[in-house]
Fold this sequence. Notes:
The chain is of the alpha/beta class. It has helices at about 5-15, 20-25, 30-45, 60-85, 100-105, 105-110, 130-135, 200-210, 225-230, 240-250, 280-295, and strands at about 50, 55, 90-95, 120-125, 140-145, 155-170, 190-195, 215-220, 235-240, 255, 265-270. The longest helix is centred in the N-terminal third of the chain and has 25 residues, at about 60-85.
Amino acid sequence: MDFQRLRTFRTVATLMNFNQAAKVMNYAQSSISSQIKTLENEIGAPLFHRFGKKIVLTNTGEKMLKYAQKLLAIEEEARAEISGKTNDTSLLTVRMPQTVATYHLPGVLADFQSFFPKIHLDISSCARYSLEHELSIGIIDLAFLLTDSVDAASLEFELLKVERLVLVAFPGHPLMKKKRTGYRDLQGQVLFLPKADCGYRMTIEQILTAEQINPTSVIEINSIEAIKEAVINGLGVTIIPEIAVRNALEHGKLAELPWEEDLETGVCMIWSKDKWFSPALESFMNSFRKILASSPTDLGTITPIPENTKQGK
C-alpha cells in the first residue's frame, strides 16, 4: 500500500474537501482524485460518499482512516529509528475508560509532555470486545481497562492501581434506611451503569444474571457526568468508581449506600506481546505508573511487577 496515497487520503479525510487538499499538498486536483480512486480500487470499496461538492467518509473510509494514521505513524517511527534521529512528533493511539481519562490522564499528560511535548495523542474510550484485535494488529498502541486481569494469549497487562467502587443514590433514597445493602437490593431498582468503563460493568451484569436479580431497568450511558446528574436527580442508583463521585459525596449531592462487602476494580495497562516500544510509548507508560502510584488509593496486596518484566521486555 503506497504511503503517498495514504497521506493524500488522510489530508482529504481531514479537510473533507478535494480542492483544499490539493492546495495543501501542492498537487493538481486531478492528481488528488486519481490517488483516492486508485486507493479505493486497491481496497475494493469507496472511501467517500460524494454529494456534489460535499464529501463524507463511508464506513470503510472511517475504518481506513484509523489504519492510514497508524501506518503513517509507524513509517515515521521506522525512519527515526533507522536514522537514529529522535521522532518527537509521532502518533500514539490509546484506548481508556472515561474514569481513567477524566481523573488520571491530566496528571499523566503533565508529566509525559515534559519529555515529549510534540507527540500527537489519539485517545478514545475502551472497546473491550475489539481490544485484543486492535492491539494485535497495531491500530492502537496501548489500552487501559477497569478490570483485575486480562485473559488473552496475545496480550500483556500490568495492574497499576485498585479503584474503590461505591453504590450511590440521592440522599433521600429509600435504600438509605438499610444498614447493609447488597446485590439483592438492586431488585426493582433503576440501575445506571457507565457504558464506557468496561470491565467492572460486565462483572456486575454477570452477577445480576447469575443471581437472577432483575432491576426495573439497566440504563447504560457513555458519560460519567450524565450518570451522576441522573442519580442526583433521583432517577436511580449506580455502582461507580469512588473517585468519579468523590466531590458530589463531599458536597452532599450524593450519598454512599453501605455495601455488605468491599467493592473494587483494578486499573490495568495492556499491550500486545509483540509490541515494539518507541521511546515515546515507554515514557507514556512510565508516566502512568508514576502518577497512579502516587495517587491516594492504596494498592493493597498487589505485588509490583519487577523492572525486568515490564513493557514486555
